[in-house]
């Protein structure tokens, strides 16, 4: 996992589960992606972001510079320009750095991430990026394989300072794409004091 390029070239179970959840949620009327701005963090191969685009969203898939070649190829292959649904573009983003204007203006309606909670060292930068990209109307869906309870607990405890967090019940997932080794969380930014006064 520490070898550059390895994590971005593997299709993890949580990405499949999250992608099929989005498809199921749209089909059942739980979520609407048509016309929504979506940012995917740590896109890797790009499955989740491509699914969101095919569901009608305007998606920006992000990852580190060394992941761009495969990600761009997969997006070009799977989300054809001029399709009547959504769009998909690819941008470099290193968590913790200031995001490009395109990512935050306007802020996304939905943020997606699969297997982005993998080390304590990455948690602070991931949360900084989530805070920068999240507005009052942004909903974040994060799915991950349950590998390291310590890292997950560290992330959840730190995230609770800025976000309200819920666990997405498996009854809402795609019935054929479930795994007890995967957890899915939904995060919404807590209102700031200045927002409450308005």
From TrEMBL:
Name of one Pfam family that matches: Methyltransf_16
GO process terms (BP): methylation
Species whose genome carries this gene: Cinnamomum micranthum f. kanehirae
GO molecular function: methyltransferase activity
InterPro entries for this protein: Methyltransf_16, SAM-dependent_MTases_sf
Name of the protein: Protein N-lysine methyltransferase METTL21A
Keywords, ordered alphabetically: Membrane, Methyltransferase, Transferase, Transmembrane, Transmembrane helix
Superkingdom, natural source: Eukaryota
Transmembrane segments: 41-64
């Amino acid at each position: 996992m520490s070898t550059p390029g390895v994590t971005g070239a593997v299709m993890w179970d949580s990405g499949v589960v999250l992608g099929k959840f989005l498809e199921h949620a749209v089909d059942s009327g739980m979520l609407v992606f048509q016309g929504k701005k979506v940012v995917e963090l740590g896109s890797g191969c790009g499955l989740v972001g491509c699914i969101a685009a095919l569901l009608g969203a305007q998606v920006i898939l992000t990852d580190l510079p060394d992941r761009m070649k495969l990600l761009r190829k997969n997006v070009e292959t799977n989300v054809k320009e001029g399709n009547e649904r959504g769009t998909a573009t690819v941008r470099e983003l290193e968590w913790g750095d200031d995001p490009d204007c395109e990512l935050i203006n306007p802020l996304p309606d939905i943020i997606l991430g699969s297997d982005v909670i993998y080390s304590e060292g990455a948690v602070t930068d991931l949360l900084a990026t989530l805070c920068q990209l999240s507005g009052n109307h942004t909903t974040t869906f994060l799915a991950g394989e349950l590998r390291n309870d310590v890292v997950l607990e560290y992330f959840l405890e730190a995230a609770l300072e800025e976000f309200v967090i819920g666990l997405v019940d498996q009854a809402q997932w795609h019935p054929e794409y479930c795994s007890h080794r995967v957890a899915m969380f939904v995060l919404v930014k807590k209102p700031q004091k200045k927002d409450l006064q308005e």
